[in-house]
Amino acid sequence: MVSVHGWVIPRSRRSEPPFFTKNQIISVLEQVGTLLQLDGANPFRVRAYENASRSLSSHEDNLWETVQEGTLIEIKGIGKGIAGLIDEAMNEGTWGDLDSLYQKVPKGLIEMLGVPGLGPKRIKQFHDELGIESIAELRSAAEEGALANLPRMGKKMEERILEGIDLLARFTGRRRLDIGLLYGEAFERRISSISGVQRAQLAGSARRRKESIGDLDIVAAVENEDIEKVTDAILSIPGIAEIKGAGDSKISLILESTIFEEAFSNSTIDEGVLAALGGEAWEELESNSTIDAQVRLVPPHVFAYTMAYFTGSKEHNVRMRQRALDMGLRLNEFGLFPLDGLGDAKGLEAAANGMPAMDETEIYEHLQMKWVPPEMREDMGEIEAALSDNLPSLIEPYQVKGALHNHTTASDGSASLSEMAEAAMALGWEYLGIADHSEVLNIGGRSIGVPQHLVKKQGNEIREMNDKWSTEGTDFRILHGSECDILADGKLDYPDSIRREFSHVVGSVHAIRSWRNRDEIENTEILIKAIEDPTFTILGHPTGRIIGGREGFPLDMHAVLRRMGELNSDGVLKACEINASPYRLDLDWRLCKFAKSQGVPIVINPDAHFKKGLKDVWFGVQMARKGWLEEQDVLNCLPGSVIEERMMEGK
DNA sequence: GCCGTTTTCGGCCCGACTGTTTTCAGTCG
Fold first, then answer.
1. Is A341 (CB) below 7 Å from strand B?
2. Interatomic distance A184 CA / B6 C1' (Å)
3. CB 3.0–4.6 Å: which of A12, A57, A59, A92 could bond A19 by disulfide?
4. Do domains A22-104 and A175-298 have the same CATH topology?
5. In CATH, which superfamily holds the domain spanning A311-387?
6. Which residue has its C-alpha nearest to nucleotide B11's C1'?
7. Which residue ranges make up each domain of chain A?
8. Contact flag, residue A100 CB and nucleic strand B, below 7 A
9. Could you count the other beta carbons within 10 Å of the beta carbon of residue A353?
10. Could you give the CA distance from residue A337 to residue A377 in angstroms, rounded to a whole number?
């Protein structure tokens, strides 16, 4: 459901400029786009606001400085109008005439956008003609049959809206990447095994490894004469909760977790993904858990084009089509065609005259570009990099040699030191960093941190184990760190003398509530103060977000990373974690490239609380890939013998 | 509202599906 929470124009709490932060500006611009749609504005004007919001969020420089320099309009997508708006907001603390727009559009209309089949046009029509301002009013109007009499409406639309309202209540929100991939892999395998399907592959945000997945897209290559047979077979796959629609080229479904039973017993799931998922995520699925899925059926010779198209992202595709147009070509899900001589041929008919492509590499070659890995297709600079042959060589899961943030029974983990070490060795790792919680941490009134007097005991155990491996000639070691709480005032838990004994200190915020009650500027200052402590090594789950659960606390992460970069250039090691738990995936991948540009090393940490949790590193690697990171950018790609030294040097 | 070797106006990515119509508008991805 589109949450209505937060749909008010922000008021500044500050007494001097800048009155608003970059994140506040970005969110207002995005909301204005939506509000304008509901107000019936010119769709291109709507897109201008959406584009401005997007381009600002990938703009890495300090926005306040840009405003002061007067160079706002040099940012692509920001012209005179929006630049004036941003200038006014930051300098004066006012939003021009946007107040009236926020006032004008009833909040219930925003919620209605979440109803499948309802868009801004119909919502506006209902509002203008019938005075409908909320989902509740919409439901009763539909039940009374009041909607069917409107122009271009009818009984069927009315029913669809009622179903849509129910659906919205039942199947709300997106799925975490791990859950989405479980469904996606299972569904892909089932479709691949249908006779008549020549190839089938998962596309969409799952293939791009987004941290959360709205619905699954699967492309299947099927000859024309097999379409009917294959469609019937797909519709009879067990695990389908509902069929939403089925045409010649597209099938829309809702899947439920019963799809897994046979898929798992046949071990048909991709081994790499299954290993990463460890089966844990599946066991946790509720029986009423569902996910939307679309299957596209296309002739084999256009499969690559359709894969590229439905892998997205939408923004990447727009840029690709623009690139094609620049070369006098048209690109769509069926092929790439010269614009002249295309005539009236559309869709598949036109594909006969298109440029052939056996795989995606050839599509990019036709456009004189290097193939872009799916994870990078977000229009975050990959188009330019692919055109100039400057794409990074992305990190691979096998390049990770250990991890630095994991727990044992000494705090809230469920496995002992030696059990965790064995599991790490089984993964082929050369080291395991243990970072149990510090003393202060208690969750639900129960203290789970390691008290001061037990820190030394843990250190002794680790030393004994390391000595044993060393005499045996085993290339494995445990690094004795701590996940040390960053207190609300920016101080670190434990006395200095204890912190200095650890090989590394992962500083993490756990008392999220007090950080959420402060503003971005204050939080940023306090967090930077904590990072500057000489014993501080790694920033753990920087914003505290839980995917699908809660937003992180307000923070200017660019400013934090800039400061960490300065400290690194002074020779002090300050690394930033990508917490690899699929619940967190924090640092956000969108910030990885910036961290790299500032010279901040990244550590991919599973934050494992049990043996299988170590495998979550796989998800962290996916995020690092989305963030353009290479092997040398990631600290825990260093071999065991080197990483100890690196941490000593960095103090 | 933004943008511009076609720069101050007239474009702005493209197609399938659905339900409403009898040629098309709205929605979705």
1. no
2. 47
3. A12
4. no
5. DNA polymerase, thumb domain (3.30.210.10)
6. A44
7. 22-104, 107-170, 175-298, 311-387, 397-440+477-648
8. no
9. 13
10. 22
pTM for this model (two decimals):
0.85
d(CA A101, CA A12): 18
- Using only C-alpha atoms, chain A has a radius of gyration, in whole angstroms, of 27
DSSP E strand stretches across A56-109? none
Strand B nucleotides within a 7 Å radius of protein CB atoms: 1-3, 11-21, 25-29
Q: How is domain A22-104 classified at the architecture level of CATH?
A: Orthogonal Bundle (1.10)
Amino acid whose CA is nearest the C1' of B14: A332
Say which DSSP state A451 is in.
P
Neighbours of A130 (CB within 10 A): 15
Q: Strand B: which of residues 143-172 in chain A lie with Cβ below 7 A? A: 148, 151-158, 160
Q: What is the pLDDT of residue A265?
A: 43
How much is the pLDDT for A241? Answer: 83
Q: Is A175 helix (H, G, I), strand (E, B) or coil?
A: strand
Q: For tokens 């990508």, name the residue.
A: A578
CATH class for the domain made up of A175-298: alpha beta
Find the nucleotide nearest A121 (Cα to C1′). Answer: B26
Contact call for residues A308 and A278 (beta carbons, < 8 A): no
The answer to whether the beta carbons of residues A474 and A428 sit under 8 Å apart is no
Determine whether domain A397-440+477-648 maps to CATH 3.40.190.10: no
Which candidate, A218, A188, A425, places its Cα nearest to that of A307?
A218
CA A52 to chain CA centroid, Å, is: 20
- CB atoms < 10 A from the CB of A330, how many? 16
Looking at residue A200, its pLDDT comes to: 95
Question: Which residue is closest to B25 in terms of CA–C1' distance?
Answer: A152
Within residues 34-63 of protein chain A, the ones with CB less than 7 A from nucleic strand B are 42, 44-45, 47-49, 51-52
CATH architecture type of domain A107-170: Orthogonal Bundle (1.10)
Tell which residue, A233, A87, A253, A115, has the closest CA to residue A172: A115
In the prediction, which pLDDT does A448 show? Answer: 84
Q: Which residue positions in chain A have pLDDT lower than 50? A: 1, 263-274, 276-280, 282, 287
CA of residue A74 to C1' of nucleotide B8, angstroms: 19
In this prediction, residue A106 carries a pLDDT of: 92
